[in-house]
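[Q] Does anyone have a clean structure-token version of this?
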Amino acid sequence: MTPEELLTTTRTVRKRLDLTRPVPLDLVKRALTVALQAPSGSNRQTWEWVVVTDATQRARVGAVYAKACEAYLSSSGAAGRLFADDPSRSVVQQRVHDSVAYLAERMGEVPVLVIPCLRTGRAELPAGNQAGLWGSVLPAAWSFMLAARSYGLGTAWTTLHLTYEDEVADILGLPDDVHQAALIPTAYYTGESFKPAPRQPLDEVLHVDRWA
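[A] Here you go.
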């Protein structure tokens, strides 16, 4: 793939994750090695990566995720309830809603769960510039997802489990000063039809020099 093809076809994969095909740990490590080339604030490189492959551990994390997702799916902000006044977009949102529910029921069966984390040196996150804080791990997490795509793996960016972050921290034995940024289910995917997704025209969201 060209860089443009990679960047425009790296989709959120939920229903098409292959739950039966093992993913070699070396392949995950290869993608993470690419991810470590991403920038971080002041080059601190305070990221940490938890890769969960043990079936029991995956099932436990998956159960927490399912609990969090149940509350999300019944909320007013759930994907299927957005843009209800736009028939064409509502159809897409309902498909997203259904795929979120599908993954929630099977999260614990995904062969690899990758959890990017930040080690901050304190149990409580500092007040103030949260963008600067998370900007030191999120680019690397996205680089992991792009690398995984280039190696034939599908991923999904999820954060719903953070409602119960402490429970997942207990399952994984995380120190108090390690904070989770996301949960990225990772597996081989089925099918080959990934393509650019419908998006708003650039001119509708672009502001040059001033908002208006």
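[Q] Thanks! Anything notable?
[A] The mean pLDDT is 93.
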